[in-house]
## 1
Amino acid sequence: MSLLAPFVDFPAPNVAAALIAGDRSETLGDTKRVFELASVTKLLAAYGFLIACEEEVFELDTPCGPATVRHLLAHASGVGFKEGDATKEPEQRRIYSSYGFELLASELERLSGIRFADYFHEAVCEPLGMKDTELWGSPGHEARSTVDDLAAFARELLDPTLLHPDTLAEAFSVQFPDLDGVVPGYGMQKPCPWGLGFEIKGEKQPHWTGENMPASTVGHFGQSGTFLWLVPEQGVATVMLSDKPFGAWAKPLWAETNAALWREL
């Protein structure tokens, strides 16, 4: 039986998925179908920003907006979800923010003279063969892609070729560890661990990954009904894309399905 079989029962018109787990890797559904990613976009954009750090466009501790590149990637800058929202001082609370990613893109464009969508395409999509991935709007939530492309991205996350392993290890490490904050749809988490663009499971409850999965699980989910998670030390990742928006239906189903998948692995 396919380890991804439970995804077939998701109540969405279209569902596609991929499991990357060595000789147990498999796919489900139309892996070439293009889906809106919503906030899974942040993982792709973060990778572009980290490449920019290695290319010395800026550094993690370069001032950007009201804080630094590191603060913005880790949702610790104090800026609100969108431009114009109320703000706090940096390092006071984990405030989930797409606007922070927009500030990063604007700063990269100012320093490099290259539109971020083009920089991202050249730095990430082209070398990984992600020909059906497009950043069409906000780097916080407006990209579209396929399971095939995101599986290629997940393999890169498990065995990086575009970033130094130390840079990626930093991205998977908790930044500003004492911060509390809200995971959209899941409420206040105390603390609310986050890396550089990557959400870190930690001890969060409730959570969209399985309760039996390691605290080191990293990834992101999107309001369009999408998620990507990986457990780096185990060399395992899963991508799921659908076209049913996240809601009450998803919270128990995603957690139960991911928990069952992890038990089988």
Note: The helical segments are 41-54, 69-73, 98-112, 116-128, 147-158, 165-171, 250-264.
## 2
Amino acid sequence: MKRQEELQVRLQQVQARIDATLKECNRPAGSVQLLPVTKYHPVEDIKLLQNLGVAAVGENREQEARAKALEIPDMDFHMIGQIQSKKANSIARWAAAVHSVDSEKIAEALNRGVALSLERGDRSQEILPCFIQLSLDGDPSRGGTPLDQVTQLAEVIDQSAHLRFEGLMCVPPLGWDTEKAFFQAKDVLSGLEDHFHRSLEFSAGMSGDLVEAIKHGSTIVRVGTEILGNRALA
């Protein structure tokens, strides 16, 4: 089977799981975006996904994503990995959205980076949608914002000239029941929607737990292996 045909079959299988779960939950068809995660996979795979109608992919590593974005400028690349503040300027040049903001320092660095990129003509999109990565267990080693700091960080993002608070991103802590994690994260999201008086996105669910995430309100699922197969580790 040719690679494009393989990717098409895999995309259709994942989409079928999403559609079936939405139907089971009585949620509208099309209310969940499938974001293929292309970390460690070659740019040729992303071009094939683009041929199949995929408009956005997720990447974890800044240097790798930047190179791919330069090669495929008409594809949207979402940053979903942990961010170092020294990399924020570069991320602001290529990212269509960032799912992993976890501190005011990172938010401020991204805001400055977008302004600089616009000034230099490296970026055309004036506003960078940003998700707060939620830390349900408060463990800083895996990234994420503690529960008691989420609202303040959301306000910092939303008040920034070049950022927009888009919603939450959640990865269940190691050893946690996924249902419990997504339930808690959705509760935090609902509180933020009340605070900001608007609907927000919920980036939650990967290959192994997307069904549970959708049942708890996910609007974006990030799927890598189930679509692209095993990664050749760098």
Note: Residues 3-228 form a domain with the TIM Barrel fold (CATH 3.20.20.10).
## 3
Amino acid sequence: MNLQKFLLGLLVLLGLGTALAAPSVDVPNELRLTHDLVSQSLREYAQGKSQQAFRTARSAYLDHFEYAEPPLRVLNPDLILEMEYRFADLRNGMKAGQPTGELQKIAGDIDGSLRKAESIVSGTGVLGPTLAATGGFTILFREGLEAALLIAAIFAYLDTSRNTQLRRAVWYGGAAALLATALTWALATYVLSIAPVSRELISAVTSAIAVVILFSLSFWLLQQSDRRRSVEFMRARVSQAVQSGSLLALGAVTFTTIYREGFETVLFYQALSVASGPVSVYMYLGVALAILALAVTFLLLFRFGRRLPTAKLFPVLVSVTALFAVAFVGNGVRAFQEAGWLNVTNLYGRLPTIDPNVAALTGLHPTVETLGAQGLMLLIYVLGFVYARVRAGAGRQNAAGKLERS
């Protein structure tokens, strides 16, 4: 037994010695070049250039990934073996003339493994996990806080009634909405995993929808009048349900109010989970912290009846929401590029390289198209916020003028 341990240790030392004696390799750069060539091979295959696509895919493995293998093999041999099979599946699929969608799924798995490999070599650092945790926390806390305030508004309306069954119907409706949200998450995850389209296209469409909703939410949160109208509309629906005497109708109002927030949460987390990749565990840490924060919020609202400083809190949440919308724009454009729907003007080598996890979570990919889309989105946000401020100031001046005249 001791002899076996000695021989095993000797082999490990020899393996490490060989790796140390090998020429220095820029592993992150080789992995990025591998990613670019895999994406290029898919575009060539989609254009009918199957032979050229096969040669490009082979070059991605032989001319770049193989150079990154020695240090990675020491750190995670299982990942290397897995990737060898995936590269072989990609080349064999091109030889066999498989549909482009099938090859895009294989390429998506390769891309995920490349990101994991780069994280193994470079380390996750601090910024990537921090961004993932921040996103996980902000999304759930923002949506949960909005739901809590709406439920509080419903209970405030019901305070005029001593009918305990009405309050029970609200809680049942809220619980049903939470259950429906969990089922929606499970269903969405399953459907997306078996969808007959590429992972890149799914990511692109999900990011695009998330951006539209986040963009509208950002400015809606800033407009106090719009939020008041939303609460008044919800109270009117509650009033109709109470007057009809139907507990089911009241529960349905609560269900739709909460489930709308839950559906948005599922959509945002689908986009964020793709971006988080190897640091997704930190996203779930943010989710756990958000659940804890929401528990405290619910306790303060419904147990002690305390008011929360939402006027100061919402601008912070709006700012973080806007930043994630800009990130999703970059990721969405990048996904459309990898799916072959948009051109790619690479800026590799011209811009400083950043950690792949940070790039995925911020959407800062080194292409003209992704950075241009993010710049445009950021400009729209700046102009929109300035417009909202000017409009709010004008509204306050008009209100002050009316008070003076009265």
Note: Residues 127-405 form one domain.
